[in-house]
Specification:
The chain is of the alpha/beta class. The chain folds into 3 domains: about 120 residues, Response regulator (Rossmann fold), CATH 3.40.50.2300; about 100 residues, 2-Layer Sandwich (Beta-Lactamase), CATH 3.30.450; about 45 residues, no CATH class. The chain is about 45% helix and about 25% strand. The protein has a 5-stranded parallel sheet with strand order 2-1-3-4-7. Strands 9-8-12-11-10 form a 5-stranded antiparallel sheet, with helices on both faces. Strands 5-6 form a two-stranded antiparallel ribbon. The longest helix has about 55 residues.
């Protein structure tokens, strides 16, 4: 008899000639078989989920409906088996699995062909369920990955907002530009209505800084490295901000520049603070130099640290 190349197992319950014939044919065909005379004897096999075929004598099936229901529950796991009634006619359903018929008597070859077709059906069903579960697992993994990416993007945007640092990328072959959300916020532009381009970027750079900002990128495009520039931008309402651009250019294997990736940081507060300090120092120097009285700044050792113009006249020598 032809051998079955399968890893499935069959459980045969019953003592009829049909059940005995099934056990004999299955074993001759190299199918692993577990045999028990009664439903009450299959307890040791519970929750194993290893049987592809469960063949039951018709009289046992008719007299043990409650036990059969338990059998469906215990064996209807990962591998959903086919339930076959031996020596019966008609049609019925058992749980979610339709019971099949194995008429008796039949030749060994006929029994073998039936078993072979049922095994193919179980194997196909198992592979289909495995594919569905694999797809489901992949979808779950994709959702988790999407969630992680979304969280990482959110954290990046939040950290950029706190630091007032946006990111940008320029394709040096087409000069197409992409901005992160914080870059749009720095320029106070709406990503729904403004598409970033190199020309669009330059249009928002202060006119006095525009050429310098343009040349800074173009002059470094072919030289890999990290660069920076500070310049002003003009907002839609006319206000002016100070930003610092830092970027790095990348070249392909032939040494041709193809991409620049950089950051844009709003340094308005820092720059304005430096301007305020510088203006205060200038005012102090003006008052100091033009004071009508002599002013001396003396070190601890008694030497002059500085003197104003009137003090120069008093001591008869210029300040160092």
């Amino acid at each position: 008899m032809k051998q079955l190349d399968v890893s499935l197992e069959a459980l045969v319950i019953g003592t009829s000639d049909g059940a005995q014939a099934v056990v004999r044919v299955a074993k001759e065909a190299n199918l692993q078989v577990a045999y028990v005379p009664n439903v009450s004897d299959w307890t040791e096999f519970r929750n194993q989920n290893r049987f592809g075929l469960i063949l039951i004598d018709q009289d046992i099936f008719n007299s043990a409906s409650e036990s059969i229901s338990n059998l469906v529950r215990d064996f209807g796991g990962e591998l959903l088996p086919i339930f076959i009634r031996i020596d019966s006619t008609g049609s019925t359903h058992l749980g979610d699995s339709e019971t099949r018929l194995l008429y008796w008597p039949q030749s060994d070859q006929q029994i073998f062909q039936l078993i072979q077709s049922w095994i193919r059906e179980v194997d196909l069903s198992f592979k289909l369920r495995a594919s569905i579960e694999s797809i489901s697992a992949l979808e779950s993994e994709s959702r988790q990955l999407f969630k992680e990416v979304s969280n990482a993007k959110r954290r990046l945007e939040e950290s950029q907002a706190v630091a007032k640092i946006g990111c940008w990328e320029t394709d040096l072959t087409t000069f197409d530009v992409s901005w992160t959300a914080e870059t749009f916020r720095i320029f106070e532009l709406d990503p729904e209505t403004f598409t970033p381009t190199h020309e669009g970027f330059l249009a928002h750079v202060h006119p006095d800084d525009r050429e310098r900002a343009d040349l800074a990128l173009q002059n470094t495009a072919g030289v890999p490295g990290t660069y920076s520039i500070e310049h002003r931008i003009v907002l839609p309402d006319g206000r002016v901000k100070f930003v610092e651009e830092r970027w790095r250019t990348f070249c392909d294997q032939d040494g041709k520049p193809f991409r620049a990736f950089g950051t844009c940081q709003d340094i308005t507060e820092k720059t304005q603070a430096l301007i305020t300090v510088s203006q205060s120092e200038e005012r102090f120097r003006s008052l100091y130099d033009n004071a009508p009285d002599a002013i001396y700044l003396i070190e601890l050792d008694g030497s002059f640290a500085d003197i104003n113009a009137i003090a120069e006249e008093f001591i008869g020598r210029p300040r160092d």
